[in-house]
Design brief:
The protein contains eleven helices and 15 strands. It folds into three domains: 5-51; 73-152 and 258-308, D-Maltodextrin-Binding Protein, domain 2 (3-Layer(aba) Sandwich), CATH 3.40.190.10; 158-254, 3-Layer(aba) Sandwich (D-Maltodextrin-Binding Protein, domain 2), CATH 3.40.190. The strands form three sheets. Strands 4, 5, 6, 9, 10, 11, 12, 13, 14 and 15 form a ten-stranded mixed β-sheet that branches. Strands 1-3-2 form a three-stranded antiparallel β-sheet. The longest helix has 14 residues, at 83-96. The chain is of the alpha/beta class. The protein is globular, with a radius of gyration of 21 Å.
Length: 312
């Protein structure tokens, strides 16, 4: 029996992903790890188990094959956490009989996984500081030869999430620098972190001026729960996270949230089915509790490579 154990850094190198993604897999329970002192280790056997679990199911042949009996590989969706994306994954999985595996690891890491061919769809909201444009500047740089399409999913309200009544009277980024204000942040690579850092730079605020800037959480709800539990005074996030926990929201910006589809011979039909499902009246009618969202342009293809124009 192979009794080797790996560090998160070594696992990241083996899978060609970031160390942050490895920690997220451990945090979600997808990858089992143990501690020696304060050091995290993953056994070789656990690494092999996880690799097997991520493989596509083997297609079995019979004398009279039935298309409905042949399991297909799951569609892997990576990127930013969003409540409407969760809803889409559940609704599409049920309506189209296709398994969607979401992995909410942040916009940048999700886009990089798509670029490396490690997922099929990326959910992103990345602000380019130079152009002040969302998503497309990053896509134009990365995807030159790949067959991709970019769909507008929603516009979202981003702002300050604070306790009910806003007891610290937080209304502007300069308030984050006050000594009596404790902040909780999102992880590096999150689209929300991109937007926050752009705003801080615009206001001439250095991160070391903010108490709690280095305290990171991996999704909107986790960050907002700090406020709900009285462990922090403010976080920067989406309005729907504040609504979920009954917190107050101070709007700052409206951002573009998009889905990026990368077509391969294996996933082409599933992705086309998912795109048509997203564009359907039935899916749009299923969307409720849209506080903090605008879905006016949901389903609109805002960019596609020439290879995909004949498909969609």
């Amino acid at each position: 029996m192979d009794e080797r154990a790996y560090t998160p850094d070594e696992v990241a190198q083996i899978f060609q992903i970031s160390k942050h993604t490895v920690y997220e897999l451990i945090k979600r329970g997808d990858l089992q790890a143990f501690k020696i002192g304060n050091k995290m280790r993953i056994e070789h056997a656990e690494l092999e188990r996880y690799k097997e679990s991520m493989k596509a199911p083997t297609k079995k042949t019979t004398d009279a094959p039935s298309i409905n009996m042949i399991p297909s590989a799951p569609i892997r969706l990576s990127g930013s956490h969003d409540f409407l994306v969760e809803h889409f994954a559940k609704q599409a999985g049920s309506a189209l009989n296709v398994q969607i595996q979401p992995s909410f690891i942040g916009s940048l890491e999700g886009l990089m996984m798509l670029y490396r061919g490690q997922c099929d769809i990326a959910a992103i909201h990345l602000l380019d500081p130079a152009s002040q444009e969302y998503n497309l500047p990053f896509i134009h740089q990365l995807f030159v030869y790949e067959n991709i399409a970019v769909m507008r999913f929603a516009d979202r309200q981003q702002g300050f999430i604070v306790a009910k009544g806003n007891p610290k009277n937080i209304s502007d980024f300069t308030d984050l620098t006050r000594k009596d204000v404790q902040f909780v942040n999102r992880q590096k690579g999150a689209g929300t972190r991109f937007l926050l850092d752009s705003k801080l730079s615009h206001h001439g605020i250095h991160p070391n001026m903010i108490n709690g800037y280095s305290n990171e959480e991996w999704n909107h709800l986790s960050a907002a729960s700090y406020i709900n539990r009285g462990m922090a005074d403010v976080t920067f996030g989406i309005q729907s996270a504040a609504s979920h926990l009954g917190l107050e929201f101070v709007p700052v910006a409206q951002e573009k949230f998009d889905l990026v589809f990368r077509f391969t011979p294996e996933n082409k039909q599933h992705l086309l089915d998912l795109i048509h499902f997203l564009q359907s009246a039935s899916f749009k009618d299923s969307l409720t509790n849209l506080e903090g969202y605008s879905v006016q342009d949901l389903g609109k293809i805002i960019y596609q490579t020439s290879q995909t124009e004949e498909l969609i």
